[in-house]
Amino acid sequence: MSQAMLSNPVLAALNSGVIVIDDEYNIRYVNAFIERHGNMQLAEVAGKSLFSVFADLPEAWLKRKLMSVLDLNSPAFSSWEQRQYIFKLPHLRPITSSSQYMAQNCTMLPLATEQHEQSLICILIEDATDAFVYQQHLSRTLIELEKANRQDGLTKVQNRRYWEEQLKQEIHRAQRYQHSLSLILFDLDKFKDLNDKYGHLGGDFVLVELASFIGSLLRDSDLLGRYGGEEFGIILPDTGIEGAEEVAERICQAVADYPMLFNQQTIRATLSIGVAEFLPKQHFLHDDLIRCADMALYNAKRSGRNRVCCYQSGETDYHKKAN
Amino acid sequence: MNKPGFSEEQRDCLQEIINVAMGLASDKLARFLNTFVHLQVPSIALVGAMHIPEEFENRYQDAEAALVSQGFFGNEGVRGEAIVLYQMENAHKISALLGYEAGDVSEIEMLTDISSILTTTFLNGLASQIENSLSYSAPRILSSRHGNVADVLKNTSFHWEHALKVDISYQLIDHSFNCDMILLIPGEAVSNIKNILDRILEAY
């Protein structure tokens, strides 16, 4: 078999589309891949306009590309990442892919012809559906990963790293737009006793239950995060100290009145809560605001637990640490 | 540093080939854009690829910049990777010239189109002079906007030994834009290119 004769069966077996057009956009050749996927025969489309055979083509866009191939005698490209497909062709994974049409990488090449002969362009179409499907999986996974990266594994509220990032942003916003902003820090009273009495599973259960219950008491804009162990924080945008204290009192009361059923035993828990308002002239860093709320929290512990304390301006030292 | 071993004659020859290639490219561009393109003699430099990031660190530090890469390969072991670097500001200028309208195509497609045109017209001109012909991979964005250019270059140029740096500056009647092109060439391709240059030098 001569080399020229060999190229025909190879072109027929090729798992890529080949279309050859002339400089008037008339089809000169399509290979078996295009015949099969496009449901057409070379004999019936030869000599017809590319744009009449494939009626859905982005004509203006494609003409500009093809024109540059002819004028510059250099290739042009189109990637599925920018344009999912140029030719509406079915693909071979109709079940596993959410996309209806074959994602394509297309290359438009100038074909060398004799002088005085009409210029030809070869359009190569590669099926990129697999890459498209993987990319979709990847995007979905990244979204899930990002969510997991923000969440506390046990209680599903924001984890400390993400919550602190949010606090920094809210402080920035409060400074820029001169909005008020308050912070609540709360801690489960005598959590160690709960763990001793009900075991660590019981302790974990209380954390999960309370995080979800307290979350349900908040506005959409309030941001609840687990600060560490049995300590949590709530960022309250657009809220002054009075409003924050009111929220804190409501949470304190509601938790005290909220019996939790664990292994046929009713567990009751109480909270100590510290509240502080963001003061632009005193709090230069988010740490300063956390420290103020933390001081108020320990005051609440020291003065008997199951209560709310607000940070008093001027307090500087920690009272003796209590459980 | 692994010094690229080009003799002075080879270097002159390469500069001449690049000048002509640039001329051919700008001629084609002028016809395509229907405007007059004035071209400055491109300055070229051969450097070890590892020194490429520091060469460009300052120029592309602050502004929004884009990098687009395109592989090329031809006969006689000529192969490498072409990287076009430009400020986004310049990219917008040329996209207007190419007839793109805002919202017409994505920014990424615009960038890859421009880069592909600049790279392939130039390299085709180069290839025709050394009686070669090149194939190209599809252009790929390495980074755009806020990516750190030097970091991206570090990760890319790492794979190559030599780099041919070509400063390109096109001026059109109403507009001017400039960009940098880097041709990253692996060691064995450099010796192949040297052989080709020697053959050309012999013919004269």
Order of helices and strands of chain B: HEEHEEHHEEHEEH
CATH hierarchy, class of the largest domain in chain A: Alpha Beta
Count of folded domains of chain B: 1
Q: Average pLDDT value of chain B?
A: 79
Largest sheet of chain A: 5 strands, antiparallel
Please write the string of helix (H) and strand (E) elements of chain A: HEEHHHHEEEHHEHEEHEEEHE
How does the helix and strand content of chain B classify structurally? Answer: alpha+beta
CATH architecture of the largest domain in chain A: 2-Layer Sandwich
What CATH architecture label of chain B applies? 3-Layer(aba) Sandwich
The number of helices of chain A is: 10
User: Most extensive interface, residues per chain?
Assistant: A-B, 18 and 20 residues
Secondary structure: helix percent of chain B: 40-55%
**Backbone CA Rg of chain B:** 16 Å
What is the CATH C level class of chain B, in words? Alpha Beta
The assembly state of the depicted protein chains is heterodimer
pLDDT averaged residue by residue of chain A: 90
CA distance, first residue to last residue of chain B:
33 Å
According to DSSP, the number of beta strands of chain B is 8
Tell the overall outline of chain A.
elongated
Strands of the biggest beta sheet of chain A: in what spatial order? Answer: 2-1-5-4-3
Structure description:
The complex is a heterodimer of chains A (323) and B (204). Helices cover 43% and strands 21% of the residues of chain A. Chain A is α+β, with helices and mostly antiparallel strands and 323 residues long. Chain A has 2 domains: 3-136, PAS domain (Beta-Lactamase, 2-Layer Sandwich), CATH 3.30.450; 151-310, 2-Layer Sandwich (Alpha-Beta Plaits), CATH 3.30.70.270. Chain A has a 5-stranded antiparallel sheet with strand order 2-1-5-4-3. In chain A, strands 7-8-6-11-12 form a 5-stranded mixed sheet, with helices on both faces. The longest helix of chain A has 27 residues, at 191-217. Chain A is elongated and about 100 Å long. Chain B has a single domain (8-203), classed as Chemotaxis protein chec (3-Layer(aba) Sandwich), CATH 3.40.1550.10. The two termini of chain B are 33 Å apart. Chain B contains 6 helices and 8 strands; from the N terminus they run αββαββααββαββα. Chain B is an alpha+beta fold. The mean pLDDT of chain B is 79. In chain B, strands 1, 2, 3, 4, 5, 6, 7 and 8 form an 8-stranded antiparallel sheet that branches.
